[in-house]
Amino acid sequence: MKQIIIVVGLMVLSILLIGCETNEVKSTDIMQVQDFDDNETEQKLNPDVGVTETILSRVKVMVDVLNLRETPTVSSEKIGEVYLSSVYEVIESLTVNDEVWYKISAGDHFGWIASWFCEETFLEAYEVVKLNESGLILDNYYEIGSSVILEDHIQTQYSYEIFMNGHPIEETFTFLSEGDYEYYTVLYDELGRKLSTGKKQLKVVENKDTLCYKSPDMTSEVTYHISDISEYNNVFGVIYDYDETLEIWYELYPPNEEKCYFLRTESIEVRNSFDHVVFKFNDEKYEVEGEYLVPNRTLEDFGYFIFEGESLFIVNVKTGKSFKTSYSYHFIDDDFLIVYKDIDQYINDLEQEYSNLRIYDLVDGNFELLYEDQTAYIGIEHQGYEDNILTFGGYGRSRNDWDFAAENLLQETIQLQRVDDTWHRQIKSSDYNHTNPSSLMTVYNTQNQLSEVIDIFDIHEVQSVTFLQTYDIIDHQLVLWFQVTLKDGTIGYTYRSRLPHEPGYLLNLEDYYMTMADGSKLKKKSSSDFWYVKTHLRDELAEFNMYLTSESYEGTTLKAYDRLTKEKVELPFNNTVLLSPNKTWLLGTLGYYADPESKVMIFEYKDNEFHELYKLELNQIYAYNFEWLTDDSLSFILGDRDNKYDALLELINDEWVLTTECPNL
Q1: pTM of structure
Q2: Which of 128, 247, 536, 542 could, after both became Cys, cross-link 86 (CB 3.0–4.6 A)?
Q3: CATH code assigned at 28
């Protein structure tokens, strides 16, 4: 029984000792594992135990990894590794208790390897070097001028050298020129053996923002580099990826390339029309199809993104709620959205329908309607929001042309004051309050003051009065013609002078007409250009039977039409026009929008021509506040933005004399 226990104990001990080092197990025809305890090791190192020396010329490593040890024992210090298929010259061999160890030279070191993992060979000496290290790992793309601290990108535990375009580099490298770069790492393991990593490529570009990726993810593969700004015209889609931070990706379709994506940055501005817009938020995806424009302004901090095209589209990427309208908009306090039909929309699109101003709540991102103004306008102008007061101008057409001819749109100035959650409306001013001081009109049979008079009527005795967009000069005065519908349905015509509250600016959306001396009408076509929509038909030259028009910004272009000859007259002045009290002299100044006048002139109109009697050349000096004091004296102000000087122009002994202390004239 005792013998059985001893045998079993020895078997258990043998099992426990199996596999002390898996790199040095002994192989036979049947796989066996054998190693030695410390006592056995001491015996192997003792010369009295019968160590014998054998000699082999060359051996080949037959396992993937074999430890190289300081002494011929599995318990001695490991100083390195040798690898499968390496062939070494055997410097010395030792047999310890029938176990053979070979001494070899690996790298810069000498050490011992177990013979039972080698075989004798006649191959030339060859050392396989393996280092499971990546070496230097850089990005695929860099910008010109960017620098890299190499130790931040090296992945190895060994000593190394780095080569860029074949030249060794140290510590920090700066990319100074655009183009392709090649780099690799030389590694030195613990035995001093050298191994070069594979050569890697990178590209240096002028602007890294022009890189395009396979998917909207900067970790994906770079598939394209934008080299020409015109390629941004190939953008057809945009992706708003809203997570903890916002990323905006554009879909690019390069010629003969697959679709790719680039990230929006401050250095890249894409203004383009898109086939589709995608919003990603809270793992949800929301897509909008159609033609939308990305505007310059967004409320990104609040998660609102705005697209304008045929209609306005606003989406809150935090809630997924969206808002769509064909009107203009304005954000106030980041808490409210006002939506209105802008007056420019009316002018540009010739839309006639009326609309109201609406205010929506943005606090919860649900676009809840809080207030709707009950007065409808054909156009609205947002004027500002301050101290909880929203101010806007509402435009409409005249309700009664006799009181206010519809040369232009009438305006009301409205204030909406927010108190808690309630908006209170107040009219600050209104053109609708103006009336014609005369209620009587002479009605003619035709649009000619020499035609038969039907009768004289009070405004309350007729059915309607409609401005005909027709002008005439009667008794040296510019007048407006109207169609009058009597209560029995009879149609007649009347005229009157322009009223003081009528500004005289024509909203030239329709044709208008100027009556010539022979009764014919000169037709002026409506304007399609926004800057020429407002035409000022002035009355200063009516005294000379001429129609004076200004067709742009006030003070940039003046021309007149002669009522007798029907010819257009180019005028030598284009800004201030002022007749003397006896209508003998005409003051005219030459200047341009937002700039000082360059000339002040006095004219006499004689023989159907303007004759210049006096000219004052100005040198970047402003002239304003012109006033005829008498028929032969004129006062005004000269100066710059900081200084003002009185000026007096008088006709003395048939000569115009200027008196002023203004310098630099």
Answers
A1: 0.54
A2: 128
A3: 2.30.30.40
